[in-house]
User: Fold this.
Amino acid sequence: MSMGVNYDAMHNSEYPLHGGSVDLAALGRAIDRDFAQISKHFKHVRTFYSSFYSVPVAPYAAKYGVKLYLGVYMTDKSWYKGQVDAAIEAVRKYPGTVLAVLVGNENLRPNGPYTANDILSRVNNIRSRIRSETGTNVPVGTVQRISEWLNQGISSETSKLANACDILGVNIYPFFGNYDYSNPIKPLEQQWNAMISKYGSEKVRLTETGYPTSGGSSPSGVRADLSAAKSYFNAVSQWKPKGKGPAFWFSFHDRRADDNSVPGEYEKHFGLVNADGSAKANNFPPLAK
Assistant:
């Protein structure tokens, strides 16, 4: 299965992570720099946002020949409209760049605040706007954790999503479960096969998997380690499962050291490279073929 990577601009020093003013031109240059680097290693990128402080992602992806699974961050705040507008504009201006639009991430109850109907109202709105405003059909879907997709207690909710979405993104992290150092791909494949068995292979995409390179151990006792992360990355890159790709690694960059939005030091170190873009190891990640 081909490999893609997750991207977020918040690792950059130009991004005002803790509030304050933003230099939009400088942020745009930072995103340009990121995509120039990413394009040497990956040809597919998944984002969580369609724009950052009104700076759209799609022009930079198009510039460097990167295909997007473009995220629309789901919120009830007023800036959600800008997320949707940027996604529609991306499809209109760069129809060969945007392969799919993904609405929401790990936000279905009980893990998040939204019901399936909440998510689908936005999926359907965006799908309708894409068709009416661009004259094209682009797959629109959502991304949720494996825990929710396979939770029998909310099967009525996940069935609604499965029936109405074009893409079912699933996030699977063996790091948080029973990781098998002798067979790194085994726990991923078991959960992936369970997704395919329940929902079929046409719509399902692996939107996140990854392994931190430092920062302690997961609650299940799996250690964050560069060597183990490289082994898992190599296993995923050589994996040939049922279903469709690309499979998206989380993530390209580490979080900034001052990013305290997530618990656990290891959460800052899922990147293939450091927050400033410098390498963690020679010839890693490998160049795109």
